[in-house]
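call fold(seq) -> tokens
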Amino acid sequence: QVQLVESGGGLVQAGGSLRLSCVVSARTFTYYSMGWFRQAPGKEREFVAAIRWNDGHTYNTNSVKGRFTISRDNAKNTVYLQMNSLKPEDTAVYYCAADKYGNNLWTPAEYGYWGQGTQVTVSS
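ret:
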């Protein structure tokens, strides 16, 4: 069973930074594409960023380009989301997700495993 545990959320002022971490309990972590999604109250879960398992190619939604960076450390079974220049509209619960050999990484249904989420609140 693959388990994902996020950490690093919190309260930050607009313009500040946070780094989210997601530790994955999988023996073959290198075969998993990883994604970050977020869900604000009353809204659907939306794609934020992803990193592909085989070539490390990254994807970002337009609203976070130039501000958020996804990366992974295969030796630590961990994926990160560095969030800079945070805005109040970034406030949401952030979820980490994993998909073995995944390619369609912007679609929540693609992912078979999810973390419990971590709250990010950006004050104005």
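The chain is about 0% helix and 50% strand.
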